[in-house]
């Protein structure tokens, strides 16, 4: 499963990319607003940091304007993925941009039928929002499994991008349910690594090694 980082903060991305484990980036209008920076400048900066896919979301909701915005965003860099809402107009825009050879990420997916239509529209990625489904009292992970089953049954190439990830457990379960990608907030990415027994074990090894008085170098 690929790892994308869900952030518009370039300081976080610098640290994340330094691990060599990160395959791409997703942003959304709320993350851009939180950054307090110019949208196109942020996307340009992120695209200079990676050759991997960088999702940049349109701001309008009508077909004509989304199409124009999508083309402007795609012109920023070759690795921009145009993010579109899962609406009637969003899917029309997806179909059109896909026809132009532009990669798309259809976002705000909350049902398997929505995901099926996005695949039919040629979306490069579909973003089911796990955490937000969980918030309503339904298991978000079931959505990933259902989309996986439908996509496999009909050989759709659209990649399942598990979004609205809130915890390491979400990441693990998304991988088990067959997501192609998880887009993870930086803090959750950091917490994937930590385990108290790793720290405890390393402390013991370090102490015992010091007792030998030896040096490897
Ligand atoms: C995905 O592309 C979205 O940017 C993101 O995962 C939304 O997460 P949230 O529900 O925590 O805002």
From TrEMBL:
Enzyme Commission numbers on file: 2.2.1.2
Catalytic activity entry: D-sedoheptulose 7-phosphate + D-glyceraldehyde 3-phosphate = D-erythrose 4-phosphate + beta-D-fructose 6-phosphate
Active site as annotated: 83
Enzyme class: transferase
Pathway: Carbohydrate degradation; pentose phosphate pathway; D-glyceraldehyde 3-phosphate and beta-D-fructose 6-phosphate from D-ribose 5-phosphate and D-xylulose 5-phosphate (non-oxidative stage): step 2/3
GO biological process: carbohydrate metabolic process; ketone catabolic process; pentose-phosphate shunt
Primary location recorded for the protein, binned into one broad class: cytoplasm
NCBIfam families per record: fsa_talC_mipB (TIGR00875)
Similarity section: Belongs to the transaldolase family. Type 3B subfamily.
PANTHER family assigned: FRUCTOSE-6-PHOSPHATE ALDOLASE 1-RELATED (PTHR10683:SF40), TRANSALDOLASE (PTHR10683)
This protein's name: Probable transaldolase
Native source species: Parvularcula dongshanensis
């Amino acid at each position: 499963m690929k790892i994308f980082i869900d952030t518009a903060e370039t300081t976080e991305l610098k640290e994340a990319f330094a691990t060599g484990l990160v395959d791409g980036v997703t942003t959304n209008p709320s993350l851009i607003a939180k950054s307090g920076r110019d949208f196109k400048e942020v996307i340009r900066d992120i695209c200079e940091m990676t050759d991997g896919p960088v999702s940049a979301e349109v701001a309008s909701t009508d077909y004509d304007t989304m199409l124009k915005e999508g083309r402007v965003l795609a012109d920023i860099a070759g690795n921009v993925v145009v993010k579109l809402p899962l609406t009637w107009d969003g899917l029309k825009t997806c179909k059109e941009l896909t026809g132009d050879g532009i990669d798309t990420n259809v976002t705000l997916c909350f049902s398997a039928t929505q995901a099926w239509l996005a695949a039919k529209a040629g979306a490069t990625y579909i973003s089911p929002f796990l955490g937000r489904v969980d918030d309503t009292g339904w298991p978000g992970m079931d959505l990933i499994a259902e989309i996986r089953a439908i996509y496999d049954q009909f050989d759709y190439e659209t990649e399942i991008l598990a979004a609205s990830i809130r915890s390491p457990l979400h990441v693990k379960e998304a991988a088990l349910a067959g997501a192609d990608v998880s887009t993870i907030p930086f803090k959750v990415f950091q917490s994937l690594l930590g385990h108290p027994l790793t720290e405890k074990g390393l402390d013991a090894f370090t102490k015992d090694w010091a007792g030998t008085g030896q040096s490897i170098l």
